[in-house]
């Protein structure tokens, strides 16, 4: 069971809090959930790799304490997965949205709910200028979530992989929403 930490964000159905070392087993469970890694890798990361990833996340919180990966839980503490606003090469003004949910929670609107909350948080609290997200072209579910959140497709690109996943030949896609687009969408509701 994860150590109790205060949620950084709340949505209608979820609390989103920072990752702790006690979340390792939950993250391993998520990565081993059948179908979760379909568009990410041939096999899930090992427990040791997840431990190393958690240490990287904890160090990143020291530099950017309000960015990064957040554990998503329902009101009854059921583990849903995670959402992220990662600081990449373009810095904190253009965080990258990411999410990974257990398959039991697919199709319930939680990916859109959490992603929308992260986008709102990026613009309202983190003063982001844009939020970006990437996935494989063939990942229709993730693309649909991005579009429901007001993100638009800005490019398709190709990456060379030593052992490409099925669908890699169609490329990767990048989506984004700018602060201006977010503001217009908020005022038109």
From TrEMBL:
Residues 14-180 form the N-acetyltransferase domain. One of its GO terms (molecular function) is acyltransferase activity, transferring groups other than amino-acyl groups. Keywords: Transferase. The keyword Zinc does not apply. It comes from the Bacteria. PANTHER family: GNAT FAMILY, PUTATIVE (AFU_ORTHOLOGUE AFUA_3G00765)-RELATED-RELATED, N-ACETYLTRANSFERASE DOMAIN-CONTAINING PROTEIN. This is GNAT family N-acetyltransferase.
């Amino acid at each position: 069971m994860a150590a109790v930490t205060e949620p950084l964000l709340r949505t209608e159905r979820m609390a989103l809090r920072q990752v702790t070392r006690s979340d390792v087993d939950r993250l391993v469970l998520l990565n081993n959930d059948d179908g979760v890694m379909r568009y990410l890798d041939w096999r899930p990361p090992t427990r040791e790799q997840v431990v190393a990833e958690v240490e990287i996340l904890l160090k990143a919180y020291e530099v950017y304490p309000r960015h990064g990966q957040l554990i998503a839980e329902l009101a009854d503490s059921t583990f849903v997965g995670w959402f992220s606003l990662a600081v990449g090469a373009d810095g904190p003004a253009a965080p990258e949205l990411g999410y990974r949910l257990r398959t039991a929670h697919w199709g319930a609107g939680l990916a859109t709910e959490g992603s929308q909350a992260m986008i709102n948080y990026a613009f309202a609290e983190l003063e982001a200028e844009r939020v970006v997200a990437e996935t494989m072209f063939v990942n229709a579910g993730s693309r649909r979530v991005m579009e429901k959140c007001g993100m638009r497709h800005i490019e398709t690109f190709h990456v060379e992989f030593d052992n490409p996943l099925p669908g890699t030949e169609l490329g990767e896609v990048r989506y984004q929403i700018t602060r201006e687009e977010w503001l217009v969408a908020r005022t038109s509701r």
